[in-house]
């Protein structure tokens, strides 16, 4: 039994069992950009967009995604070109080891889709569920701020 969904804008049928965690189903489908940190909904490294809202893919079952839209970090770039937000993370030093980065990017995209010019406080609030062990967060906030130059689309 497969689960049909729209994955990064393309209709797909994923063959993993419906009770498989979305995180595992995505990785089994070759989308390994989504990372597992805690596996318990605490770190945010597995964040994806489900119908436009950020969710922890380790807490969602594939079967819950039937007929819905999922966007992973792979869906943010335009072909081979980094999105403005991804480029800002590179340019501003918002990524170091990179484990948290896919989740940070996805959470930030969701924020910038709602708010064109969030304050630093709002950025920190929106990313509060995303844990980073490396950067001290300042560079991440700076990266999101730098991506606002494109009108807040960030992707
Ligand atoms: S791996 Fe999903 S929240 Fe940590
Ligand atoms: S860059 Fe290493 S955990 Fe964030």
Order of helices and strands: EEHEEEHHHH
Amount of helix:
25-40%
- Rg: 15 Å
Strand tally is 5
Distance between the termini: 33 Å
Strand order of the largest sheet: 2-1-5-3-4
Shape estimate: globular
List the uncertain runs.
Answer: none
Average of per-residue pLDDT values? 95
Q: Tell me about the biggest sheet?
A: 5 strands, mixed
- SS-based class: alpha+beta
Number of helices: 5
Strand content: 5-15%
Bound molecules: FE2/S2 (inorganic) cluster
Give an overview of the whole structure.
This protein has 155 residues and is α+β, with helices and mostly antiparallel strands. The chain is built from five helices and five strands, in the order E-E-H-E-E-E-H-H-H-H. Helices cover 29% and strands 14% of the residues. A five-stranded mixed beta sheet has the order 2-1-5-3-4, sandwiched between helices. Helix 2 (84-91) packs across helix 5. The longest helix is centred in the C-terminal third of the chain and has 14 residues, at 101-114. The radius of gyration is 15 Å and the shape is globular. The N and C termini lie far apart (33 Å). The model has no long low-confidence stretch (mean pLDDT 95). It binds FE2/S2 (inorganic) cluster (FES) (2 copies).
Short description:
The protein has 155 residues and is α+β, with helices and mostly antiparallel strands.
């Amino acid at each position: 039994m497969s689960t049909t969904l729209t994955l990064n804008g393309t209709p797909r049928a994923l063959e993993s069992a419906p009770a498989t965690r979305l995180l595992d189903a995505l990785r089994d489908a070759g989308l390994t950009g989504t990372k597992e940190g805690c596996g318990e909904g605490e770190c945010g490294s597995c964040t994806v967009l489900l119908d436009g809202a950020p969710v922890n893919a380790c807490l969602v079952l594939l079967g819950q995604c039937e007929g819905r839209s999922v966007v992973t970090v792979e869906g943010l770039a335009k072909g081979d070109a980094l999105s403005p937000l991804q480029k800002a993370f590179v340019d501003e030093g918002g990524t170091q080891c990179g484990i948290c980065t896919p989740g940070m990017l996805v959470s930030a995209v969701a924020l910038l889709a709602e708010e064109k010019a969030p304050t630093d406080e709002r950025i920190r609030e929106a990313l509060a569920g995303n844990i980073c062990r490396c950067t001290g967060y300042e560079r991440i906030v700076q990266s999101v701020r730098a991506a606002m130059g494109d009108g807040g689309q960030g992707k």
